[in-house]
Amino acid sequence: MEINKIDPILHIRQNKKMYLGREDVNQDFLATNIADDALVLGASTVVIKKEKGWWIIAADVDWLMAGHNEDLKAIFQKILPLKNAGQNAIRREVLLTAFVDDILTWNPKISEMEVIKGESTREFEANYQSEVLFKFAKRALAFRIKESGLCI
């Protein structure tokens, strides 16, 4: 018997209701789910900011790397279990890859920005990368869906 591998991003896109609980992509839902994951993965302080089309989530711990030795980008490409969150719970960074245009992450203390998907902009980097609001954070993540609609 042959086991067929599936593309996790394609599978998520084809099964929106299973992963999002709805047919439409709601950015509020995505942002609050990422913040929830950060809390489950050890953060005690999480801030969500929405401005100029970007959603920014910052936490007092590096939740993205919590419990993983993988490459940072790999976390956004796979369906990974979210331990301590219940049976069948998954980390939801992969939902961002499936449904948004741009994903950026950085450590505000180091100010090293990494583009996970899409592109960064000089405006974004100048305005948010070193913002005082995020000085407490050890990890920040930003995403957006461009006005033209979804990338899929």
Structure description:
The chain has 152 residues and is of the alpha+beta class. The protein has one domain (8-144). It has helices spanning 8-14, 16-20, 27-40, 72-75, 93-99, 122-128, and strands at residues 46-51, 54-59, 102-107, 112-117, 139-144. A five-stranded antiparallel sheet has the order 1-2-5-3-4, covered by helices on one side. Helix 1 crosses helix 5. The longest helix is centred in the first third of the chain and has 14 residues, at 27-40. It is globular and about 55 Å long.
The shape is: globular
Strand fraction band?
15-25%
Number of domains: 1
Instruction: Give the structural class.
Output: alpha+beta
> In which range does the helix fraction lie?
25-40%
Distance between the termini: 33 Å
Low-confidence stretches: none
Query: What value does the Rg take, in angstroms?
Result: 15 Å
Q: Which series of helices and strands comes N to C?
A: HHHEEHHEEHE
Number of helices: 6
Mean pLDDT: 85
List how many beta strands DSSP finds: 5
Largest β sheet strand count, sense and barrel closure:
5 strands, antiparallel
Which strands sit side by side, in order, in the main sheet? 1-2-5-3-4
Give a quick set of tags describing it.
globular, 152 residues, five-stranded antiparallel sheet, alpha+beta
List the helices and strands and how they pair.
Layout: H1 8-14, H2 16-20, H3 27-40, E1 46-51, E2 54-59, H4 72-75, H5 93-99, E3 102-107, E4 112-117, H6 122-128, E5 139-144
Antiparallel strand pairs: 1-2, 2-5, 3-4, 3-5
